[in-house]
Design brief:
This protein is α+β, with helices and mostly antiparallel strands. About 40% of the residues lie in helices and about 25% in strands. The longest helix has 29 residues, at about 415-440. Residues about 1-30 and about 615-623 have low confidence and may be disordered.
C-alpha cells in the first residue's frame, strides 16, 4: 500500500485487529475504567458488544446488543451468557476455560426470551479491563440461511456444469452433432432456408434446397454476397431491394418475385425475411425462407389469361370451390376435400352449408359470407376440420359475386402449417444453440465469471462511453499472492478451487449493473468500475479484503501469513476527448500492481498518474 493510502487509513483501525483500549479512569456510565472516546466507540459499534465481570454477569451492553437480544439495556445488565445459551451447555466450565485461554472465537446458537433462536459469530477477549471481559457478537442467522441456499444451488449447478476443458469439448461435440441434425432437417425441407449478414448481405447459412431451386450450390452463395440479387429477375429487383432497405423499420417482409436459375429458367418464389437483433437491439442477421410457387403462379396466370378453359382448370385444382347464396344454400360444388361431407349437389335439390358440417364452422362461414356481401370485398379466414379421421387446416376465401351470391374457395393448408410449425421449432432450437455458444464465448470455464475476451469488449465500450460523457473510469488489477507455491503444494485441483473462491469474492463486490469482474489470466483478475472515482474503487478493494479475510482461506506456503491474500493495482481516469485507446489505463494498473508486489504484497497501490479530479474532497459511499 502506498504511503498516502496508509496515511489515509490511519483514523480507521485495520481490518479485524483493533488494539484493546487501555484502562483509564472509570466513566460515570460504566463500572470500569473507560475513556470518553472508547464509550462513543462502544455505543456506536454496529456489532453487539457486551462487557462481563469475573463471574460472567454483564455490566454493560451497547445498543447493537440490545437490538440483537431484543431487550432493553437494563434487562441485559445483571444477566449472564448462560441465560441465553441452550440448557445442555455447561456454562461454568465454558467460562473457566475462557478465562484461562483469554481469547475465544467461533459461532454459537443463542435463545432469546421470546423463544426465538439466533445464530451468532462471536469474538471474546478476557481482561480487556482489569476484571472485565469483552465479547462481540454478530448475527449471522440470515447469512447462514443464504449460504445454505447458495450451497444447495451450487450443488445443483455443479451437477449441470462441468468446469473443465473436457466439458467444453463435450459441449462443442454435442453442438456439432446438433448442428448436423439441424442441417439434416433443414436440408430435407422443400423451401430454401437462409441467413445473411444485415450489413454486407454476405451469406451466413443456406440449406441444400437452394441448389434445387436456384441451380447454384450452397457453397456458391457462401462465396458470393451478390449472387442472391444477381439471381433475381431484373424487373423485380427494385422491389426486393426496397424491402431490404425497409427491414430495420418494419422488421420483416413477405414478397412474391421471380428468379433466374443457373440454367436460365425463370421461376416464381415467395420470399419471407425477418431481421434478427441482439439483446442490445443491434441487427445481427437476416433470416428467411424462399419457397418455389411457380406451379401456383402458372395456375393463376392460366386462370387469368384463358377464361375459356377456366372450368376445366378449376376441376383439376385441389381447392374446394362452392357458390352459395345469402341463405347458405349451396348452388355449385367443385372438387376439394370437404366435398366428401356435402356429396353431389343436384340443381333442383339444394343443400345447406349446415348439412353434414360442424355447426360452429358453418356459423363462422355464414358470418364471413354476410360480411363479404355487406362490404363487397373478399374475406379471408382459417379454421381446422376433421376429414376422414385426420385433423386438417383450411384457408377460406369468400368472394362476393353479386348482391346475393358468393364464391367460397377452400384450400388445404395443412402442409404449410406443419412446415411453419417445424420452422418455428427449428428457429427456437437455433436460438438456444446461439445463446449457449455466446455464453461459452464470454464466460471463463473454470471460475464462471467473465473471461478475457468479455473484459476486452466491456473495456472498449466503457472507455468510449466515459470519453464521450467525460466520466471517470476505474480499473483494478489483482493477483493471488504466492499462488505458485499454493498450486505446487496443494495440487492443481485445490488451485482450481482457490481460483473459483477468489472469483466468487470478486463477483460479490460487484454491486452495480455496469461493474464487471473477469479472469485476466492465470491467477490474475481484473475489475472494471464505470463512473467510479478513486474513493469508490478503494471501497471495493477494502470490501474484497474484508470478505477474503473473513473466509480465512488457508495458505501455509505464503510468505505473508497463513491465509490467502491478494495484491491490487488501482487506476482511476477520465479519458480525454483525444484519447482513443484504453491500453494506457491497463498499463498503469499493471504498474501499480507490480509496485504492490514489490512493497511486500497483501496491499493495494494507486497509480501515481491518477487523475487529480478522480478523488473528491469527501469519500461518498458507492450506490
Amino acid at each position: 500500500m502506498s504511503a498516502a493510502a496508509e496515511s489515509e487509513s490511519e483514523p480507521n483501525a485495520a481490518y479485524g485487529s483493533a488494539a484493546a483500549p487501555r484502562p483509564q479512569k472509570a466513566s460515570a456510565n460504566y463500572p470500569m475504567a473507560i475513556s470518553q472516546p472508547e464509550q462513543k466507540l462502544f455505543e456506536a459499534a454496529l456489532d453487539a458488544m457486551l462487557i462481563a465481570d469475573n463471574e460472567g454477569y454483564y455490566v454493560a451492553a451497547n445498543p447493537a446488543a440490545c437490538e440483537l437480544l431484543e431487550l432493553p439495556r437494563q434487562a441485559i445488565v445483571g444477566r449472564r451468557l448462560a441465560d441465553f445459551l441452550p440448557p445442555e451447555i455447561d456454562f461454568a466450565t465454558l467460562w473457566r476455560e475462557f478465562l484461562v485461554a483469554g481469547q475465544e472465537r467461533g459461532e454459537q446458537q443463542i435463545r432469546l426470551d421470546s423463544g426465538r433462536v439466533k445464530r451468532v459469530e462471536f469474538s471474546a477477549t478476557a481482561h480487556v479491563y482489569p476484571n472485565y471481559h469483552l465479547s462481540i457478537w454478530r448475527d449471522i442467522t440470515a447469512r447462514q440461511q443464504a449460504e445454505a441456499e447458495r450451497d444447495a444451488l451450487s450443488r445443483q449447478l455443479e451437477q449441470w456444469v462441468i468446469s473443465s476443458a473436457e466439458k467444453l469439448e463435450l459441449t462443442e461435440s454435442e453442438l456439432r452433432s446438433q448442428q448436423q441434425r439441424t442441417d439434416s432437417i433443414l436440408n430435407s425441407l422443400e423451401c430454401v432456408v437462409w441467413s445473411v449478414n444485415p450489413e454486407t448481405l454476405e451469406t451466413i447459412y443456406v440449406n441444400a434446397t437452394a441448389e434445387k431451386l436456384y441451380g447454384y450450390s450452397p457453397e456458391a452463395f457462401l462465396a458470393s454476397a451478390d449472387l442472391w440479387f444477381r439471381s433475381v429477375y431484373p424487373d423485380d429487383l427494385p422491389l426486393l431491394m426496397a424491402d431490404v432497405s425497409a427491414l430495420p423499420t418494419i422488421g420483416k417482409t413477405d414478397r412474391e418475385f421471380r428468379v433466374i436459375r443457373a440454367d436460365g429458367e425463370i421461376r416464381w418464389v415467395r420470399g419471407q425475411a425477418r431481421l434478427v437483433r441482439n439483446e442490445a437491439g443491434q441487427p445481427i442477421r437476416i433470416d428467411g425462407t424462399t419457397v418455389d410457387i411457380s406451379d401456383r403462379k402458372r395456375t393463376e396466370l392460366v386462370l387469368k389469361n384463358h377464361q375459356a378453359t377456366q372450368q376445366a382448370i378449376l376441376t383439376a385444382i385441389p381447392d374446394l370451390l362452392m357458390r352459395v347464396n345469402r341463405d347458405g344454400q349451396i348452388l355449385d360444388l367443385i372438387s376439394g376435400g370437404e366435398i366428401t361431407l356435402y356429396g353431389p349437389i343436384e340443381p333442383h335439390k339444394r343443400q345447406s352449408i349446415y348439412q353434414n358440417f360442424p355447426k360452429d364452422l358453418a356459423d363462422q362461414r355464414m358470418h364471413y359470407m354476410q360480411l363479404a356481401l355487406k362490404t363487397g370485398s373478399c374475406q379471408y379466414y382459417e379454421h381446422t376440420i376433421e376429414l376422414n379421421g385426420k385433423l386438417c387446416y383450411e384457408e377460406s376465401r369468400v368472394v362476393p359475386l353479386n348482391d346475393t351470391e358468393v364464391l367460397i374457395i377452400v384450400r388445404d393448408i395443412t402442409e404449410r402449417k406443419q412446415a411453419e410449425a417445424t420452422q418455428t421449432e427449428l428457429n427456437h432450437k437455433l436460438q438456444i444453440v446461439n445463446a449457449e455458444l455466446n455464453r461459452l464465448a464470454t464466460v471463463d470455464g473454470l471460475t464462471q465469471i467473465a473471461n478475457r475476451r468479455s473484459f476486452d469488449q466491456a473495456l472498449d465500450l466503457e472507455w468510449q462511453r466515459a470519453r464521450r460523457q467525460q466520466k471517470l473510469l476505474a480499473l483494478i488489477l489483482c493477483d493471488i499472492d504466492y499462488f505458485k507455491p499454493y498450486n505446487d503444494n496443494y495440487g492443481h485441483l485445490a488451485g482450481d478451487d482457490c481460483l473459483r473462491q477468489v472469483a466468487q469474492v470478486l463477483g460479490m463486490a460487484m454491486r452495480r449493473s455496469g461493474d464487471l469482474a473477469a479472469r485476466y489470466g492465470g491467477e490474475e483478475f481484473v475489475l472494471l468500475l464505470p463512473d467510479t472515482d478513486l474513493d469508490g474503487a478503494l471501497q471495493v478493494v477494502e470490501s474484497i479484503q474484508t470478505t477474503l479475510a473473513e473466509r480465512r482461506l488457508p495458505h501455509a506456503y505464503s510468505e505473508i501469513g497463513p491465509v490467502l491474500t491478494l495484491s491490487f493495482g488501482l487506476v482511476c481516469h477520465r479519458p480525454a476527448v483525444k484519447e482513443h485507446s484504453p491500453r494506457e489505463l491497463v498499463h498503469r494498473a499493471d504498474l501499480a500492481l507490480y509496485e504492490a508486489k514489490a512493497q511486500g504484497r497483501n496491499r493495494y497501490v494507486v497509480s501515481a498518474a491518477n487523475d487529480a479530479s478522480a478523488t473528491p474532497p469527501r469519500r461518498p459511499k458507492r450506490s
